[in-house]
């Protein structure tokens, strides 16, 4: 038993030296932590307010926001949803598209109500010199 444990630990040490990433990160990405803080503050909530709504301690929220605690997935999901957000899986190829849509949404929210527009139709307001085309 001891030999097996030593063998496993020695491979883990060699993997660390080779630069193999650990399975669990040491903190949430700074951008995500910043977004959590900003969203909580936009709701007008203190860390204590959010913690009481989630049924966890304020120190836990503080640890998550500072990067000292990596929350479990279910805790992070519950926290994000409490802040009127969500976590979704997006194919990597679509990340720029999703980021663009989110940026447009934020611009519309900041500047009041934006006009509705189709996600797939080209903007033809600037191209009024062309004849209208039938769309299928």
Explain this structure to me?
With 136 residues, this protein is mainly α. It has a domain at 25-111: 434 Repressor (Amino-terminal Domain) (Orthogonal Bundle), CATH 1.10.260.40. It is built from 6 helices and no strands. Helix 3 crosses helix 4. The chain starts with a helix and ends in a 26-residue tail after the last helix. Residues 1-7 and 121-129 have low confidence and may be disordered.
Q: Roughly what percent helix?
A: 40-55%
Structural class: mainly alpha
Give the overall average pLDDT. 78
Shape: globular
List the total number of helices: 6
What is the architecture of one domain at the second tier of CATH? Orthogonal Bundle
Unreliable segments of 5+ consecutive residues = 1-7, 121-129
Rounded radius of gyration (Å): 23 Å
CATH topology of one domain: 434 Repressor (Amino-terminal Domain)
CATH superfamily of one domain: lambda repressor-like DNA-binding domains
- H/E topology pattern: HHHHHH
Strand fraction equals under 5%
Say how many strands there are. 0
* End-to-end CA span: 69 Å
- Tell me about the biggest sheet? none
What would CATH call the class of one domain? Mainly Alpha
